[in-house]
Amino acid sequence: MLETSELRQGELHMALPDDFLPDDDVPAPLRPALGKAWQRLSDSLAQADNVAEMTGQERPSESWEALDEQRRRQLARVLVISDFVLDTLVRHPDWLLHLDAGGELEAAPDEATLRDTLGERLEAAEDEAALHAAIRRFRRARMLGIVWRDLTRPAGVDMWHTSAAVSRLAEVCLDGALGWLEAHLEPRWGRPAPRDDGREQRLVVLGMGKLGAGELNLSSDIDLIFAYAETGETQGGRKALEHQEYFTKLGQRLITALDAVTADGFAFRVDMRLRPLGDGGPLVGNFASLASYYQDQGREWERYALLKARPVAGDLEAGGELLANLRPFVYRKYLDFGAIESLREMKGLINREVKRKGMQANIKLGPGGIREVEFVVQAFQLIRGGRDTELQVTSLKTALERLPDVGLLPQEVVDELLPDYVFLRDLEHALQALEDRQTQSLPGDDQDRERVALALDMEDWPGVIARLDEVRERVRQHFDAVIADPEGENGGENEESDEAEDGSAGSLEAWRSLWQGELNQEESLELLTQTDFSAPDTALRRLVSLRESRQVQAMQRIGYQRLDALMPMLLNAVAESENPDTALERVLPLVESVLRRTAYLALLRENPEALSHLMRLCGASPWIAEQLARFPLLLDELLTPETLYTPADKARLADELRQALGRIPEDDEEAQLEALRVFKHAHVLRVAASDIAGTRHLMKVSDYLTYIAEVLLEAVLSMAWRHLVRKHGYPARGDGSRAGAEPEFLIIGYGKLGGIELGYGSDLDLVFVHDADANASTDGPRPVDVAVFFTPLGQRIIHLLTAVTPAGTLYEVDMRLRPSGNSGLLVTSLTAFADYQRNQAWTWEHQALVRARVVAGNPQLAEGFHAVRQEILGRSRDVEALRQEVVAMRRKMRDHLGSKGESGTFDLKQDAGGMIDIEFICQFAVLSMGHDTPELLQWSDNMRILETLESSGRLPADDCRRLREAYLAYRSAVHRTSLTREASRGDDSDFQAHRQVVIDAWQRLLEPST
């Protein structure tokens, strides 16, 4: 810029007087600073006017004079706060006018506009020096608008908009520079060879940290990882390079294009230390090497870093493919509470560094700072993201807002954390807006403090500090609630010392000494005896056997540390249980089962309350202990007692399952099968927990177990239907029309499922029925006959129910009650089903039909089945012939399945006077009386059939009441034996009264002459 004389400058100053900027919105202590800032800007305008006059152009000050009062007030505010804005306008006074004319002082340009604007400038760049200049000038102009909007806050602009704008700017600069460099270097080195599938191959640029999240601050580094898909050589240039060399050179130039400091400054500081092996590793890695590294060597902090990874430049599609392949490393399928330990260690390192450097006032790294909010959110993402896939997002804001929906944080906590985080980030932006410098430290200069207070629209600096102290205290409390050590940083040690001084034998320190073998045998046995172990020798032998086992000795360091940290807490919880010997016997197999999946050890250590629930459930039920040992993922259920002891009703079950399956791609059958099984195991565990806690009546327990099965059957039917329809199209209905998206199919439940009496280990007795034109075909690209369509549909349903996955099976399925049994068709039409029941079915099959009902499928078709069932059951029968057949069948069952006269033993189901007798009484009553008493045909469960027999007067009220009481007593006992892994038998003397009631009723109704 040309120099001018002092006289000329003075004359030009007259065009923009000193009172050009209103200063009544600026605090009095800052008005002298505003005057100095305006003097610098006026001098720059004077020089610009002088140049304009010499070249015959319009003087810039004339356009400045046209600024309205609101814009002048904003200018005064921004100039006094931000040296960056002042320095930029001093160098480029015309930029303010251009931004104002383009609306950029009010709203951020969209991405397309940014790319077009930068693209025009890059087209004119003939060498890398020109590239650097163009990018830096472009970035500085855009940052002028971003800082202006952040400090003036026009409608719709907040911290999140500012962060998004900076992130978008960084992405556009990265992609623009990369594209220019690829074209510039092509004559020399050519382009990378295409991938094996023919796709073009480009550099993949992953944005990490706040860039990946789309939440950059005003003066942030950008953390990057470079990658490329496949090895090979470049093609079409003067010299071919191996892809590794080519992409390394390209990456180096890309870094320089943004990071190097030139006469125009820098664009973005680039940090590549998050790549594998950090500064010591290769700058660029191919997909195969990256996958191998993360699988074999990936560390916990790298999982944390990859949470925010996002393709930001280059080959975005390939970047998405790479991250999809790395997702299992980042998001574990199981609950990964080990992540908390890692975050705790990271925070410990940060705390020590903060203390060493005296950075307690740092609003990012200090107590209650930005990083602690991030750790809270990312802890839940790492722990639960594999299961709750809606948490697999890079944005902190989005993840935080979703935590209440998945039950991980109360809404009121999020309602505190979110605005507190916004305040901290607004303060960070205010600090960085001063000089476009990356800082999170509070200023010591009084004037800078006043500038920050003004940027935050707060009255003064003491007000800022008071608000900051409140925010940091709240953040620290929430951080401690999630991340803090369960034993307390120091509290755990103090607690142990107090217990030892009080003479308590069962302190954590004592248990730690026992577990680690520091006590001799006599001391160990004394400790176990004093804590109510009735067989201390056996307990000690079990513990020593575990500690010295090959599995434990072979554990990696971090796994062994987790086991070592958990065992004292676990032994303490065992000792506090009602029966320590039983609790230890049942819980140690669970510990052994997770020695290779030590995140579960971390889960129990991080959640002492979960240990308490574990002891309670395992102490009460070996079946639950076995389930937890087989499927450790169920330990998640122990974390939420409000749902653990409160099973969901059917509507909520269906909604939960729909959401779980909705997170999984429709074509990922393996993941869907696993999700179905996890859902079933988790909800059955909840039912068992409520059963043990006595919070659910027996009838409700069976109801809930039946609801779980029904919801799963509906889901399985839907999955199987979609699969067959995709291949073959829709079958024709019996009336000639085409089926729709809803299956034209029924799943009929028989036995315990039909009678709404499922137990914990019950099989499913099923029959499949369809309503289609047997002579028609499907209408898809591979049409098949209707019969051919429905048989694979039934087979697929059975496969989905019985296939073995890591989470086991859903249910064992019994199809023998279908027409003609095992020799009959797997799926039959409703017409054929009705014909069979009318003309071929045996009496025992009609007995089975009493306990049959639709459990999944088409509602209109279900009405047709109900009509057939009522017709068959409501027939007029020869009562005496019926009686003889029912009695003969029952005697045969007793002979084969009863207790065979074992002294003092009563088989709750099969012996005379047991559950099956009551079921046969109900079935006989329906078949013999249904013609005259149609209300009996409505129900499939024994309890309501007995109630109807009473209300209709067909049996004496007292008999019906006492039969119901007996039936409930038997079912309750059977439930208990399921949970305790015992045979469904009892002491004859305990059930004598109930047995006699049933025997008397049997003889009156079914054997009156004997």
From TrEMBL:
Q: Quick one: where's region Adenylyl removase?
A: 1-487
Cofactor(s) listed = Mg(2+)
Give the enzyme's EC designation. Answer: 2.7.7.89, 2.7.7.42
Residues of the region (Adenylyl transferase) are: 499-1010
Task: List residues of the Glutamate-ammonia ligase adenylyltransferase repeated domain.
Answer: 74-320, 612-865
User: Per the record, what are the reactions this protein catalyses?
Assistant: [glutamine synthetase]-O(4)-(5'-adenylyl)-L-tyrosine + phosphate = [glutamine synthetase]-L-tyrosine + ADP; [glutamine synthetase]-L-tyrosine + ATP = [glutamine synthetase]-O(4)-(5'-adenylyl)-L-tyrosine + diphosphate
- Compositional bias of kind Acidic residues: 486-502
Query: Per the record, GO CC terms?
Result: cytosol
The PII-uridylyltransferase/Glutamine-synthetase adenylyltransferase domain covers 344-482, 888-976
At the top level of its lineage, which domain of life is listed?
A: Bacteria
Q: What Pfam families does the record tag this protein with?
A: GlnD_UR_UTase, GlnE
Q: What class of enzyme is it?
A: transferase
GO biological process: one example:
regulation of glutamine family amino acid metabolic process
| Region (Disordered), start-end ranges | 481-506
Role played: Involved in the regulation of glutamine synthetase GlnA, a key enzyme in the process to assimilate ammonia. When cellular nitrogen levels are high, the C-terminal adenylyl transferase (AT) inactivates GlnA by covalent transfer of an adenylyl group from ATP to specific tyrosine residue of GlnA, thus reducing its activity. Conversely, when nitrogen levels are low, the N-terminal adenylyl removase (AR) activates GlnA by removing the adenylyl group by phosphorolysis, increasing its activity.
Give the matching HAMAP family: GlnE
**Per its record, how is this protein called by name?**
Bifunctional glutamine synthetase adenylyltransferase/adenylyl-removing enzyme
Record the organism: Halomonas chromatireducens
State the organism's lineage.
Bacteria, Pseudomonadati, Pseudomonadota, Gammaproteobacteria, Oceanospirillales
